[in-house]
Amino acid sequence: xxxxxxxxALASLLTLYSGFGLGTILTPxxxxxxPLHVAVALTGIVHLLNNLFKLALLGKNASRTMVLQFGIPSxxxxxxxxxxxxxxxxxxxxxxxxxxxxxxxxxxxKLIIAILMIFFALMEILPSLKSLNFAKRYLTAGGLLxxxxxxxxxxxGALRSAFLINSGLSxxxxxxxxxxxxxxxxFIRLPVYFSRFSANNLLEQWPLLLIATLSxxxxxxxxxxxxxxxxxxxxxxxxxxxxxxxxxxLGSGIV
Length: 255
What we know:
With 255 residues, this protein is mostly helical. It has helices at residues 2-18, 22-31, 36-58, 64-88, 108-125, 127-130, 139-153, 157-164, 171-196, 206-225, 232-251; strands at residues 95-99, 102-106. 49% of the residues are buried.
């Protein structure tokens, strides 16, 4: 529980500035204790509650135009992605490998999520990807893609950031708009998870969820106090490096 509390607080603080990271970092930690599809669902609960807390802190700065233009397609994409997750969760492992008497299984879901984690992390550190400039006419398509990956694996923030970062929003508007859209996707993907994963008794994990949520609140509260002193670039690089390391562990079956 201490590990989950620490990771939730740190990831929440980082994602407040970068626009992504909480779900990406917290999901593999939950994955140490639960099947990966259940870990995605549990992280989704913490993600929603944490974003609602951020919404209370920053929501007044959100751009209504961007919320509608990007958020509604994100919701539709989220439904498709969450449905696909439920299908992949039933697939058996593709292959296994041994090391020091330990057997590590690589499943389709683990490998797909690991690849997504690395791709979106590289978007934040490779100049060729980081400099991508999506025109406003692509916001609808961007919303669909962001929501789809949000429903599939929880990776909605990085792609959303790639579209919103060049939309002319101030730092405060950018953060608040991202939080608002994230809440919209969470509200639509969680019911899909619960309808598909009910047999796993997700709500029985409420003590763990409570600790993770309160820790995430603390991270967001601390981050909000220093929002004017932090540069997005430095935090994005730190978050991306953490995500790549976790993705390698996940994709290889170690996590």
